[in-house]
Design goal:
113 residues; mainly alpha
Length: 113
């Protein structure tokens, strides 16, 4: 039933807004990943029938997790948000990977890094 699907999607979008207000960015990212999955992405009719308030919540969360400039928007929000907050750990794991892979163990002078 299309009306039930719209209500369920709107419920998840309300949950997204609540989680963002709590500072739980890890869970927000997980739910946004589900919204961007193929089965849910194909529900264009359902997404077009959600209210404008819920569409604004979805757009705001999409903007939050844009991977441009190494998650610059998310990093700014995390730096300015009062504790406690739960960050999206994938961002930090990517940083650690690039630090490990991008830095050689031996410098050009033959010294150990």
């Amino acid at each position: 039933n299309a009306k039930k699907r719209v209500k369920k999607v709107q419920k998840f979008l309300e949950m997204l807004q609540h989680l963002e207000n709590l500072g739980n960015y890890s869970s927000v990212f997980q739910i946004m990943s589900a919204f961007n999955s193929s089965p849910l992405h194909r529900l264009k009719n359902t997404m077009s029938n959600i209210s404008s308030r819920h569409q604004a919540i979805y757009a705001k969360c999409c903007d939050l997790f844009i991977n441009n400039d190494n998650y610059k928007r998310l990093r700014t929000i995390l730096n300015n948000s009062p504790p406690p907050s739960i960050p999206y750990l994938g961002m930090y794991l990517t940083d650690l990977t690039f630090m490990e892979e991008g830095t050689s163990l031996v410098s050009s002078e033959g010294l150990c890094n």
